[in-house]
Amino acid sequence: YTREIRYASYFARIKRQIELVWNYPNEAERRGIVGQLTLRFQISRDGNLMNVRLINGSGYNILDEAALQAVKSAAPYYPFPVTIDREHLLILANFIYNPRSGIQYRPRH
Question: Cβ–Cβ contacts within 10 Å for residue 109, how many?
């Protein structure tokens, strides 16, 4: 539990950075395409994006590519706060596209 508190504030900042550049592709929204996917990405202590990879695709390349592009475009990320004593973080994030509820991002580490 203590570990989760230590990471929660940082993950909220990462989420916000991604949300600022993450869009529901117009074509997908117009066609009513919905889906969920999981990306894995790694951030270094200084906030640089080290890599990003699709783990579970949505079944729609247009959605997968939009999420991958958002993670790349949001970089560089904030440097780690002093409470996170690690050289890098590996993050699993679920991206959910649904026209009724908007885009949701749920980080896991």
Answer: 12
Where residue 105 falls (left for φ over 0; alpha for ψ -120 to 50; beta otherwise) is beta
* Whether the predicted model's global pTM rises above the 0.85 cut: yes
Can you tell me the distance from the alpha carbon of 63 to that of 68, in angstroms, rounded to the nearest whole number?
9
Q: pLDDT tens track of the chain, all 109 residues?
A: 345 677 888 988 999 999 999 999 999 989 999 999 999 999 999 999 999 999 999 999 999 999 999 999 999 999 999 888 999 999 999 999 987 766 566 666 5
Give the strand order in the sheet containing 35-44: 49-56, 35-44, 88-98, 102-108
